[in-house]
Amino acid sequence: MPENGRGTPTVELRGVSKSFGQHEVLSSIDLSVMSGETVCVLGPSGSGKTTLLRCINWLETPDTGAIFLRGKRVGVRTTAGGTAPMNDGDLAAIRTRMGMVFQHFNLWPHMTALGNVIESPIHVLRRPREEVIGEAEHLLDKVGLADKRNVYPAYLSGGQMQRVAIARALAMRPDVLLFDEATSALDPELVGEVLSVMKDLANDGMTMIVVTHEMQFAQDAASHIVFLDKGRIVEESTADEFFRNPKTERTRQFLERYNR
Fold this sequence. Notes:
Number of domains: 2
Largest sheet: 6 strands, mixed
Distance between the termini: 41 Å
CATH topology of the largest domain: Rossmann fold
CATH superfamily of the largest domain: P-loop containing nucleotide triphosphate hydrolases
CATH architecture of the largest domain: 3-Layer(aba) Sandwich
Number of helices: 9
CATH class of the largest domain: Alpha Beta
Helix content: 25-40%
Number of strands: 12
Structural class: alpha/beta
């Protein structure tokens, strides 16, 4: 559904809710992310941030609501009788368009940095090997790891592994990148190198949804901020408005905690 004439969102959530047992983790989430935006999702631990990302790419199935990627519904197909779950092949295809960068890298240990980046474009997208290798080398250079193409994950630092994971996600040419606390497993001195790559992607116009506790990154790179608490969107605004003039008491409490 176009929003204020801006066209079709890259990612759209309408009334998305999710519970685990009696615990409601997400409640009636509405969210639109336009092409080229970097949306940072902030909130205390347990507020539903990771579940939100996992619902977007259908690693978790929402209980209610609908999710769309470039206007196509995720996880559900239309049938003569109404709707039905999307089959595994169609779901896998739509997931290839949503790159996911996890907390713990999830690299294949038996493959070099280059091997990790080329694996899915070759075997999932069926793209020509030589073309993929050339693009992967460019991506490794983009994340500052051109000299590590033949190095295995065991010999990379945490920051280097995460940068390989970002290059791997980009190699699939996704419509959107989803970051789930991409720096939380890193030693403090390695955080900056990953955030620098993410800032470059934001400046280049990559569409991103970033769950993070890195307040300075959110302030510098976000097109707008979504603040979650107890599974609900408490506040949504531009980064400047969010940090300079929070509109709710809950947001002010959250920011005061981090400012300390």
